[in-house]
Structure formats: C-alpha cells, structure tokens
Amino acid sequence: MSCNASVTRLHLSSLRRADKAPVHLMPCEIEHDGLAQVSQYFTATTKQDKKEKTVSFRGRGLKGQEISCPQGYTGLVLKEVDRHGSDQEDRTVKVTSVFDKLTYWNLETPPTSDDTVVMAMDWPELAEAVSRVWSSP
Amino acid sequence: MATKKKRTPNAQNDSWVVIAADSVTDTQKQDCDPDFVRLRNPSTDEASLYMLGSGDGQLYEVKAFEEDFHSWFVGQTVQRDGKLLFVTQMDPLYLILPYMIKSGREGKFQPVDQVVKDEDFPESSRLLRCTRSLTSLHHIAEEKEVAGTKFHRYSEERTLNWLKKKVERTVVALKKKNICVGEGVKSTTYVRVKSESDNQEEDYLRYAHGLISEYISEELSKALLKHLGLPELKSPKEAEPPSKKRKLSDKPVEAGEDYTKFNGADFARKPPKKMTAAQKSLAKVDKTGMKPMSSFFSPKTKAEKK
Prior knowledge:
- The complex is a heterodimer.
- By secondary structure, chain A is mainly β.
- Chain A has one domain: Lipocalin (Beta Barrel), CATH 2.40.128.
- Chain A has 3 helices and 10 strands.
- The model of chain A has no long low-confidence stretch (mean pLDDT 89).
- By secondary structure, chain B is of the alpha+beta class.
- In chain B, 27% of the residues lie in helices and 18% in strands.
- Chain B has 9 helices and 9 strands.
- Chain B has helices at 22-25, 93-104, 112-115, 156-176, 200-213, 218-227, 236-239, 277-285, 294-297, and strands spanning 15-21, 35-40, 47-53, 58-65, 71-74, 77-79, 84-90, 141-146, 149-154.
- In chain B, the strands form 3 sheets. In chain B, strands 1-7-4-3-2 form a 5-stranded mixed sheet. In chain B, strands 5-6 form a two-stranded antiparallel ribbon. In chain B, strands 8-9 form a two-stranded antiparallel sheet.
- In chain B, helix 4 packs across helix 6 (218-227) and helix 5 runs antiparallel to helix 6.
- Classes of the chains: A mainly beta, B alpha+beta.
- At the A-B interface, strand 1, strand 3, strand 4, strand 8 and strand 9 of A face strand 1, helix 1, strand 2, strand 4 and strand 5 of B.
C-alpha cells in the first residue's frame, strides 16, 4: 500500500479542552522542544510603548508587535497524539491551544506592515480569489 | 536530500502552529473530524498535503510560511519549528483537472468516478464527494447525460475560460489588498509604492497568472497565458518576480513520508540569487523583515526544483 494512503485525523473534540495560549514568533532558532519559563524570563521583561513591544532576549534587542489572525480564521496549535506504530498507520493530531493573535519579533528592526509575516496574513483573503470555489455557478 | 545546512535533525517535531479557516473547526457543521490527506499536486505532479473536512464536503490546501531561524513560544513551551501553516479553502476542480485532462486524451465521454482514480493516491476519490465537485464539472468538461448517468469529457476551451475568470478575480483581490506587483516591489526600500507604469494592468495579470499557475500544469499555464493575450516573456529568469531571489517560497506543502517532514522540500534553502547591493545591505541588517509579499506568494518556477 502506498504511504499516500495514510491520513492524519484532526480530533475536533480536543478543541473544548484547548487553552488560549500567548504565541510568539521568535527571530531565532531555539534548538529545543518543550517546556520553558517563557512568562518568567520573556513576557515579564517585555515592554510595550505606543508603537511596538521591546524585549531583550539573549542580549539582543527585539522589537515586535501583535497581529491578529485574518477574519474568519483561527490560530491552532496542533500536537500529535500517541505516536507509535509504523509510518503506514493513520495518525491523529489534537488541538492543544488556540489563539486569535500572535506576537512576532524582529531582531533590532521596528515592526512594519511590510514584514513578511504581516504580509503572510494577506494570504487567506487572496486564496479565496485564487483557489476557493466560487459561490456562484 | 533536503536537510537544512548545519542543523541537527528535527525529527522529534510533533507540533504545528496553524492558521485555519473557521469552517475547519466548526463543530456545528462538522459531522466528522477533518483529515490531512496526501493528494497529487496538480502543478508538481507530486504529493502535497491537503485537508478534507465536513465529511469530505470541503477541500482545503495547506501552505507553509517559513523563514530560516525562527521558533515559536506557545504558552510556556518552546517549539523549535518556526513554520506557520495556513489552511484555506480550495476548489477541488484544480485537483480533478489533471485526471480529466488525462482521460480526455482518449476523446471519450466517461463517468467521472472512473476518471478520478489514482493508485498512488487512493484518497483522490474523496474529491468527488466535495460539495461542489460534481455540480461544477461543467467548468472544465463537456457533459452528457445518458439514462440518468452523467458522462464527462475534458474541454480545454471551458477550462481556459474558467481559469481566466479565476485570474480576473485574483487581480481584483490583489488590487483590493494593495499588494505590490511588478516593478513597484523592486525598490531599495520595499515600501509599497504605486507604480505609474502603463503596464500595471499587465503586471497584475501576470502576477495573478503566476498565482493560478501553481494549481495547474506547466502546459496549461502556457495556454492560459496565451488565452489572456499575454506574450511569453523571452527570459523567464528576468521575468521572475523579486521573490525568486529571496529565500522564501510558497511552495505547496509537500507531504513527506513522515508527518514531521510536513514541508518536505527545501523551503528556505535557496540562496538569494542576484541581489542588488541595496538588497544585500538590507539583508544584512535584518533577515526577517522587508521582503515583498511576492517572496512567498508568487509563482514558483519549476526549474528551481531540485
């Protein structure tokens, strides 16, 4: 059987138990997956002024801003459940967190509307023209 | 193959940050859980990741936005993989089209459930269960009904007209979002300036054509260009939007054998080519900012693959 036959099911029942988590897109790769004291060492030292947020992270000045998910879209953090067995098996993911906005951080530069992740948020609306089914025949 | 330079393998990744259409998680409408499935990408002819929701009623595409050297904080956890996945609704006709074209070579009218059959991608038959699949086949095929059974035969003429409407719709959306196309993007500042160029309409058309071309074969893309009355540009290298010179792409998410290889191929591997001095200096300042929209939304040249 082809590996393309396997599907990954998204368990929607997990949505009820998902928490609303603050989400930050960091401008560096952190070689770690798992727990970290984010609120203690990062969120707590974040400053917010009129235009932007600032924080010092590993000695570097970061500047960031909060952006919302496009209208009609929801942020989800998915996590695989019980990963075992062979690759051929169907797999499942659950929703562990939801978010309606995220904070992205630039290294040194102030956030602007030309930042790529801001522009990426235009994709869903563009996708409706490009690839979505027409509502009229 | 496509491992990123100097990085330790990221095999333990089992978590993803996603922005999904609300309909994906609408438990009122969903009678069963949505599935991520691998289907044949109509442009690359290879496996890409899609989603089928609402009891197969709705098809979604999955696109990854990724830049080098990014990670997430989610609550009190670190997620090393800095990808952001977008799950947006998609017209199933795009995926049905290659099968229709293939069977159309025989020139016969055929029942569509025999047309959309793919041993390599067994989930493909689920496309026909999408709400509007069967009722919209006339956009890409001629229809005949014999004794209550419908038969279809690919029609290039209908397909090109259908695609042209998609292009026109995309142009409207691009203008509405004030997205820079063509020359406006190339300046040193990347500020979205309005170009006074007379060719702006053509720029929009070409840009939209490029976006649509990611959902169709190269052959059909060329035919569509002709249908739109646009001449082929002599050198595709020169014609390519600034995106190609940058590191991002909007390459569809290619499903690897493993879910962890969500984004199989080389999203961010391409070295920036032929950057202007200004671009270079900007790139040094901060790699995260200042890239034009097209850096991940513009057409992907097939030549760049592998």
